[in-house]
Structure formats: C-alpha cells, structure tokens
Design goal:
By secondary structure, the chain is α/β, with parallel strands linked by helices. The chain has one domain: Rossmann fold (3-Layer(aba) Sandwich), CATH 3.40.50.150. Helices cover about 35% and strands about 25% of the residues. Strands 3-2-1-4-5-7-6 form a seven-stranded mixed beta sheet. The chain starts with 5 loop residues before the first helix and ends in a 7-residue tail after the last strand.
C-alpha cells in the first residue's frame, strides 16, 4: 500500500482486507449480502468480472502488449484485462488487486507512487470515466512515460456523476487533442467490451482506444 491518506481509505475499504478467503461461496455470498456496504459491492463486482466473456477489447490489449517491451505500468488495473505478468498494476480496489496477474500496488492512479519518466509503457484501460479527474489522469500517465514511450488508453466514455463530476467529463476529441498536443503519434480505433451482469443481462460498451507513441524529441513540460 502506498497512499497519501491511508486512514481515509481504511474507513471505507478496511472490511475488504479483513474478509476471510476460506469460506464456501454460498456462505461467503450470504455473509457479504448481510453485511452490505463495501463487502456486497465487492461481491457483485467480482461476479461481473468472473461471468463476463473475453471480448474484442481483451484481444486488442493482448496484441498491444505482445509488441511492448521494458517497464510496463497499468493505472487503475482492476483484475487486469490481460494475463501479462510483466505489467505492474496499481488500483484502489483491494479485492481486484488480489486477482491481478502481475505485481500489484494499492495506490491512487491520480497520485501514483513513482518518479516521472519511469516506464516504457503506461496503460489506462477503461479508467478515464471511472476516476474523479480524467484530465489529471492523462497528465499523470504522460509524466510517467520515458521519452519515446507508449501510452495505451481505452474508454467507453460512460460517465457517472457519483464518480466523475460533470465539469470534469472529457470527450474522445478532447483526449485526442491532449495526445496530439503532447507529441504522440496515435492509432485510434474502437473495440467492444462486454459485461455480463446477470444470466439474462449483458452490457455492450463500444470503447474508444488509443495507442500513443511519444516522439523522443518532445520536451517534458
């Protein structure tokens, strides 16, 4: 854990650390539902991840990672939309980090515990619309990259007021403008991401994706 304000995080998330991992699933479900709050939220989130099929977005990301070398970081990694153990992941969600395939650090993607120009590639997969300040996220991701590094982004731009204040929402065009202004050569596309929230309920997100390669000559600001 590398957090500036650990006490605040523990006030809401401590039950996820103390939760037993040796219970049968029906009993675990029963207790989590009875406890409610963060435990029930975790239970539902993990079920969605477990039940959702691999989709076009996962295939695209695996292909992108196959072409990347060096030090790799994923911001807001969740459980990881890949099986690449080379990637270091950071997230605020404890239960997801336990399932991440690579090394995992509990930390805030908007306040990452790394020096600038540390990584050869930085990933932020479906994080822009899941954080409180997406423009700050873009700035942090850019600052963490070494000259010539690669920034990998995706987002369905599915905004929710309770997560991101409307004044902070970004459009795909604004993300593109940021990348071009920072000197990235971009490959922009769309890839589908499927979430299975129930036996009869499937949500299809059409994510905008970017592979941005920064030119060596770009001066850091």
């Amino acid at each position: 854990m590398v957090l500036r304000d650990l006490d605040s995080w523990l006030q809401s998330e401590a039950p996820t650390i103390l939760r037993r991992r040796d219970l049968d699933q029906p009993l675990d479900d029963f207790l989590a539902h009875g406890a409610g709050g963060v435990l029930w939220r975790d239970q539902q989130r993990m079920k969605v991840y477990a039940n959702s099929p691999k989709s076009d977005l996962h295939t695209w990301l695996s292909q992108v990672l196959a072409d990347l070398d060096g030090d790799l970081l994923e911001l807001g990694c969740g459980i990881g939309a890949h099986d690449d153990t080379r990637v270091v992941g950071i997230d605020l969600h404890w239960s997801s980090l336990l399932r991440f395939p690579g090394r995992a650090i509990l930390a805030d993607a908007l306040d990452p515990p790394f020096s600038g120009s540390t990584f050869d590639a930085v990933l932020a997969i479906n994080l822009l619309d899941s954080c409180r300040d997406p423009f700050l996220l873009l700035q942090q991701a850019d600052a963490l990259l070494r000259p010539g590094g690669t920034l990998v982004l995706s987002s369905p731009f599915h905004w929710r007021d309770e997560i991101t204040p409307p004044r902070n929402w970004l459009s795909p065009e604004q993300v593109q403008e940021f990348l071009l202004a920072r000197g990235y050569h971009c490959q922009k596309a769309q890839h589908d991401w499927i979430l299975q929230s129930g036996s009869r309920t499937t949500t299809l997100h059409r994510c905008v994706t970017w592979i941005g390669r920064r030119q060596d000559s770009v001066l850091q600001r």
